[in-house]
Amino acid sequence: MAEIVLNVEVRERTGTGGARSVRTQDKVPGILYGGALGPVPIAVNTNEFRKALYTGKLLGHLVTLKYGDESQPVIAKDVQFDPVSDKPLHFDLLRVDEHADVRIAVPVHFKNHEASPGIKRGGTLNAVRHDLEIWAPADHIPEDIIIDLTGLEIGDQVRISAVKLPEGVRSAITDRDFVIATITGRAAEAEATEGEGEAAATEE
Asked: Confidence class of residue 163 from pLDDT cuts 50, 70 and 90?
């Protein structure tokens, strides 16, 4: 099971007024949904929620929800923050089978920038997507998807078909070979133009 445990209570009031009332009690309101059961309004102590959030293993990871003596695996799908104070205002938890596949977005990170000839020549990495929608086992959701830039030239594209995903993980988008990133820049064009100019001068 998961490392993080959230002790929740069921909220009696819903809506804006109910959520505001919960916050005045130093708790964060949330919703538990998914599976055969309907949505349930819940709340978690603010300090406990902050501690779980700041581990970096709350969002997009399998966690254990506890309500009294009952517990179940869930995934934190979303957290809303106050735009001024950055305090957590609301969260969504999804019921899951810990071994079942779930659809979730994970961040994309890039490595070996220095091994890209295109970037070395002044090109720029243009990330078209900053996260990927994937299907993955709930208990083996990757922290991120790493893309290797080694050998990429200006004008090259990184498509999902070229990305090596972790075992058991697959793209949630299957109807097209979409672009994740490109190497852009004018260095290649400038060099080509200069080369054509030098060739023309030599011929003259």
From this structure: very high
**In the predicted structure, residue 62 carries a pLDDT above the cut 80:** yes
- Give the chain's domains with CATH numbers: 5-97 (2.40.240.10), 102-192 (2.170.120.20)
Cα–Cα distances in angstroms (integers) from residue 20 to residues 10, 12, 16, 89, 194, in the given order = 15, 13, 6, 9, 65
3-state SS assignment for residue 6 = strand
The pLDDT assigned to 191 comes to 52
Whether 110 and 102 have beta carbons less than 8 Å apart is answered as no
Taking only the tens place, the pLDDT of each residue in 113-139 is 999 999 999 999 999 999 999 999 988
Q: What's the angle, vertex CA 107, arms to CA 101 and CA 111, rounded to 5?
A: 120
Contact at 8 Å (CB) between 107 and 56? no
Contact assessment for residue 91 and residue 32, using Cβ atoms and an 8 Å cutoff? no
Measure CA 149 to chain center. Answer: 20
**Separation of alpha carbons 149 and 110, rounded Å:** 7
pLDDT at 1 over 60: no
